[in-house]
Structure formats: structure tokens, C-alpha cells
Amino acid sequence: MGKRQFIIGIIFASLLGGVIALGGYQIFAEKEAIPYESFEERQSVVLSRFEDGNAPKVVVPEGLNFVNAAKIVTPGVVHIKSEYEGSEGYASRNPIYDYFGFGNPNGRKSRASGSGVIISDDGYIVTNNHVIENASEVQVTLNSNQKYQAKVVGTDPTTDLALIKIKGKDLPFVKFGNSDELEIGEWVLAVGNPFDLTSTVTAGIVSAKGRNINILRDENHRQIESFIQTDAVVNPGNSGGALVDLNGQLVGINTAIASPTGSYTGYSFAVPVSLVKKVMNDLREFGEVQRAMLGVSIADLDDPRIGEDVDELKGVYIIGITPGSGAEDAGLEAGDIIVRVNDERVGSVPELQEKVAQNRPGAKVDITYKRNGREKTVTATLKNIEGTFAVVRRAEPVEIEGAIFEDVSSRDKARLDINGGVQITDLNVGKWEEAGVNKGFIITNIDKERVNNVKDLKEVLKGKNDYITVLGVYPDGTKDYYSIKW
Questions:
Q1: Which of 87, 113, 199, 239 is catalytic?
Q2: How is residue 275 annotated by DSSP?
Q3: pLDDT at residue 465, as a whole number
Q4: CATH topology of domain 398-485
């Protein structure tokens, strides 16, 4: 080969290599830009580039080694610090805070901390609602010690879950597992940040599933407690952290402990990932959880309200039917005993609630029940709490004269014993600030007119052109009023 041919060959190879590299980049860039409907889809798209998705079921070897799972998970678990403007961080009225010792009785600005789990490479993080509830500022620290300010995307007090977002890309995340397939006695790891220790990993086994420990509260009694119970050590700071199987896949979000001291004494509880996925996708898409309702009042079979004439040992007893509900439409009646949902066995109220809550309004579910000893299956179409199939969306924040207003949360309405209101979530120069109103104030009345939501606020202010009297309450319960030149 001549010198000239050799040089031409090198030039051609360089050009070919550049074309291949550019084409490869373009393929990945195009994939990155593809929108996604759910977090499961996002995870599968990203992971398909690096794995075949057919990992075998892990068989625990002799000597039981947790190293691989810990290596996979720890980069995707974060530390969360929440700061509160109020005198006590609004924490002391939430019973979950008593489990973890949050709150500040000394009247100073308070802080709380917990854990979170990255569930997508573009910065979405799941944590517990009680870790960030009503926080004025949320800071996230990655395992790499990088720090970010986080935005709260949405919260669901009925499951004690919250979704937050940081501005990151190509972040390590924890892959979803399947909590429905967890078995009693299976090994699991709890990964979190207790006592401000970064990425602490503890191990234990699944002690029980479908546990109800009566810690969540909701004004409409819609709370869902179907916890995975483990004996993995969980302490203050683990709250919102990951419960994973030995494949390093997320099976739950650590939420509470059963303890008279506030520290671990033997049992810990996690929200199953089957419920976590549904709540996170709802919050990301709508800002609110789309809660599906079967429309039944139910009780466990050992409940004294149902008497002693029930022969079944496993199932959920229907005490009453909501008129116009999916249950009534399907022909269910008081006295029926639900034994399966979509052919999956349900033996308790928490298990039934979890199975129903995994769906959105409009979904059809097969309900197998027993009536007078005979088993029958019907299909019920689930509805929302209003008895419709409509999507519930959070009202968009509105800016009026330098203040940002949002509808007050259901949790705050119940906690403060108010029927509604609008809260100032951000405050800049304008009439509200000049009048001395502070961030966090909840307006309930203007002059003698009720203000239940943002829509009411805009309507009431339309005809005002003089001094207005604004009444309301701060999140710590302090009532106040202001006179504002309008």
C-alpha cells in the first residue's frame, strides 16, 4: 500500500467513525426526548439501554450476601431537609411526627429531616408526606453530596406519600419491584439516613403484609394502611427511604415504626410499591391522587358489629352500600363477603383497600364475593368520591398583587377546623406585603363574604375598590385579620 493510499484510508476511517458516533448520539438524544406516561415507562426506557430486563430470581447463597443490592440502591437514596416558617413546623398535630420526634415546641423556626428515593433519571423523588408537609423549603442531598433545592409536586396524606422534583439529569434511580410477590420470611434491606448518617443499610425479613396500625388520619376516612411489616432496623431519618429486595428493586417506602420510645424496638412499616407507583404517577400527571372508590362500608370478619353468624374465616364483610356507587351498580349488597379482587385473595380490610386504591376512577375490577354460602363474581366500575369518573386536578396557583394563592389542603382544613380557604404560598412586593400579611396566611373571609377557594377569591375581589377586611388563620392556628387598601 502506497503512502498516499495509507493517508486516504486513515482519513476515511476517521470520517466513518465520526458518522457512527454522531448517529449513536442522535439515537440516544432522541430517546431522551421521548415523553413518558408513567414512571414505570420512564424506567424501562432508560434501563433497556443497559440491561436485558430478564434478571433471574435471586437465590440466596450460603453466607447470605447483601453487597450487590446495597451497591445498586444506595446511589438512588437521598437525604431530605425540610424547613418550616411556623412556630412549630406544623408538625405536632400530625400523629406520624410522634413516631419520629419531629416538631419544635420552643416557638423557633424548625427543621425536619428524612430520606427519599429517586425514581426517575430526570429528578423525581418519592418520600413521605410527613417529611415535607407544609415545608417552606426542601433541600435534597444526593449520595454524591450534591445538593439541590426541591419543588413539591404533590402530596397524598391518605397514604403518607409525597412526590418532589429536583433539576437533575442522568440521575441514579431505584428500579420498581413487585410488592405483591413479596413473601413472608423474604429478606429485605432498608436504606435511608437515620440520625443524619448517609446511606445507612439495614437488613431484615418481611414479617407480615397488609398491616393496619391506625396512624394515618383523613377527614373523609379515606386513609389507606396496608403496610409491609419488617424487622429491618428503621429509625428517625429513615422515613421516606427505600425498602428493597435482594435484587435491589424497590418494594416499599419506609414510613413508621412501632415504638414507645421514638426509636426502633422491633417492627417497622413500609407503604407497598404497588400503591407507591400509582400515587406517584397520579401526582406527576394531575397534581392530585385519583382515588377510586368501590362504594362500600366494610369490616373484618372478626369485627363485633357483624355478629357471630359468619362461617367464613377469610374475607371482608360489607356493612353497607353507597347509593349510586360502583358496588351498587354491580349488585353487591350488605352482608356479602368479598374474598377476591381481580382473582387475588383479600382477607382483610387493608388488603381490599390497597387493591382498590391501585386503580383510577373508571377502572373495572372483578369482585368475587360470597352470599348465603354461594360464590359469585361481578364486575364493578370504580368511581371517585363524588360518584363520577371525572379527573380531579389541583387548581392552578394564581398571582394577585404580589402574592401567590393556592387552595388550602384537605389536611389543613381538617387540622384547623375550617371549611375552606386560600393560602399565600409566596409573597412579593405588593398590597398584601404592605399590609403586613405574612407567607402561609390562609384567607377564609373578605369583608362578610366566604372565600373557600381560588375561584371565590378572584370573584370576591372583582368588585372591591376601597378598604377590605381580610380574615383568616396561620398554619400554627393563630387567627388574624388585616385592613388592606384595594
A1: 239
A2: H
A3: 85
A4: Pdz3 Domain (2.30.42)
Judged by average pLDDT, the poorest of 252-256, 324-328, 393-397 is 393-397
Cα separations (Å) of 443 from 264, 394, 417? Answer: 41, 18, 14
Q: Which of 87, 115, 121, 160 is catalytic?
A: 160
pLDDT recorded at residue 358: 92
What is the band of 191 on the pLDDT scale with cuts at 50, 70, 90? very high
Q: Model-level pTM?
A: 0.74
Looking at this protein, which amino acid is placed at residue 346? V
Architecture of domain 50-289: Beta Barrel (2.40)
Question: DSSP string of 159-219?
Answer: TTEEEEE-S-SS---PPB--GGG--TT-EEEEEE-GGG-TTEEEEEEEEEEEE--S----T
279: enclosing H helix or E strand = helix 273-286
CA distance to 46, 342, 355, 358, 383, per residue, from 365 (Å): 31, 6, 10, 11, 11
- Strands 449-450 and 442-446 come out as antiparallel
Beta pairing partners, 442: 423, 473
Per the annotation, the verdict on 160 as an active-site residue is yes
* pLDDT at res. 31: 47
CB 392 within 8 A of CB 384: yes
The residue annotated as part of the active site, out of 87, 130, 336, 348, is 130
The SS3 call for residue 419 is coil
Cα distance between residue 306 and residue 300, in whole Å: 9
The share of the chain scoring above pLDDT 70, in percent, equals 82
Active site residue 79: no
Phi first, then psi, for residue 25 (nearest 5°) are: -65, -45
Task: Report the distance separating Cα 132 and Cα 138, nearest Å.
Answer: 7
> What is the share, in percent, of the chain residues with pLDDT greater than 90?
53
Q: Mean pLDDT, to the nearest integer, of 222-227?
A: 82
Per the CATH hierarchy, to which homologous superfamily does domain 296-381 belong?
PDZ domain (2.30.42.10)
Q: How far apart are CA 250 and CA 253, in angstroms?
A: 8
Residue 371: pLDDT band by 50, 70, 90 thresholds?
Answer: very high
